Amino acid sequence: PEWQRKLVTDPQTSGGLLIACAPEAVEAVQAAVRAEQGEAGTIVGEMKAGAARVVVA
């Protein structure tokens, strides 16, 4: 779909793009990015329910 093409190729990102999605959508999102860009990118973190905090490992 057109909205996916625009999301993946948005010029405002200067090449970088951070996407948040539900865990069950990860494979579909990676497949869509791979189809458009030739690679799926890298998972850099996750969000979990609970008290607000940031953990850098």
Automatic annotation (TrEMBL):
Task: Provide a Gene Ontology MF annotation, just one.
Answer: kinase activity
Under the heading InterPro entries, the entry gives: PurM-like_C_sf
Q: Which UniProt keywords apply?
A: Kinase, Transferase
Please report the name of this protein according to its UniProt entry. Answer: Selenide, water dikinase SelD
Q: Name the source organism.
A: Thauera aminoaromatica
